[in-house]
Amino acid sequence: MVDPELAGETVLLWWGLFDNELYVEHGDKRFGPYLPDGGPIPLHRYRAFKKTPMEKQTDRIEELAAKISVPRSALAGLPQVAELVSEHRVATTVFADPNPFQEFQYPNAMGAKRAIADYLGMPLAELSAEQMTEINTIVGTTLDKKKVLDQVRQYFRRRTGEERDAE
Fold first, then answer.
1. Is 25 helix (H, G, I), strand (E, B) or coil?
2. Is the peptide bond preceding residue 123 cis, with omega within 30 degrees of 0?
3. Which of 33, 160, 161, 165 lies at a CB distance of 3.0 to 4.6 Å from 21, suitable for a disulfide?
4. Which residues on adjacent β-strands are paired with residue 23?
5. Where are any strands of DSSP class E within the chain?
6. What pLDDT score was predicted for residue 133?
7. How far is 122 from 127, CA to CA, in rounded Å?
8. What Cα–Cα distance (Å) separates residue 104 from each residue in 95, 118, 119, 139?
9. Which domain holds residue 27?
10. What per-residue confidence (pLDDT) applies to 97?
11. Is 164 helix (H, G, I), strand (E, B) or coil?
12. How big is the CA angle at 164 (ends 160 and 165), to the nearest 5 degrees?
């Protein structure tokens, strides 16, 4: 670290091509020697970059892989290994539904009405009283997702067909 009394002053730096030390000159005074952080670096040598955590982990994995030795027979797929696995069968249960995590019914009437509004692409408040009565009837009858949307589609197709015929 250079002396704090030189802060803001114009100084002359003395550092030759083959020098390992830096000297600072101000007026008649010479300060130094100052060495680079980490000591001098010899010619034709470079400092290695600091490894990132990912590179360190990669090195550890490579070391482990070099230590682990797997016999060739384990890679060949011997039949006795398959027999050992087949002796201990795991109990399995087949699901009755095609997708057991899929919900087939709306949780409540509000959920069904939200889905109908999403299908129509408009808020239900913009529908006529007759259309809202029909939607309430459908939702009051069933909460099955497929049936509700099928009945809504049929109702609105029938309504648009009636409007075309009236024109």
1. strand
2. no
3. 33
4. 14
5. 12-14, 22-26, 29-34
6. 93
7. 9
8. 15, 17, 17, 14
9. 4-34
10. 63
11. helix
12. 115
pLDDT of residue 34: 78
In a domain, 88, yes or no: no
Residue tagged 């009437």 (tokens)? 109
Token readout for 165 is: 């015929």
Which structure tokens are listed for 73?
A: 């027979």
Is 20 a domain residue? yes
Distance CA 113, CA 125 (A): 11
- Residues 6+ away with beta carbon under 8 Å from 5: none
- Cα(82)–Cα(74) distance, rounded to whole angstroms? 11
Please report where in the chains the tokens 């408040």 appear, as a residue.
Answer: 125
Neighbours of 50 (CB within 10 A): 7
Higher-confidence residue: 54 or 96?
A: 54
Average pLDDT for the chain: 80
Residue 91 lies in a domain: no
Helices (H), 6-104: 53-67, 72-76, 79-87
The answer to whether residue 152 sits within a structural domain is yes
Q: How far are the Cα atoms of 14, 29, 36, 127, 142 from residue 138, in angstroms, in the given order? A: 92, 97, 82, 15, 7
pLDDT over threshold 70, residue 40: no
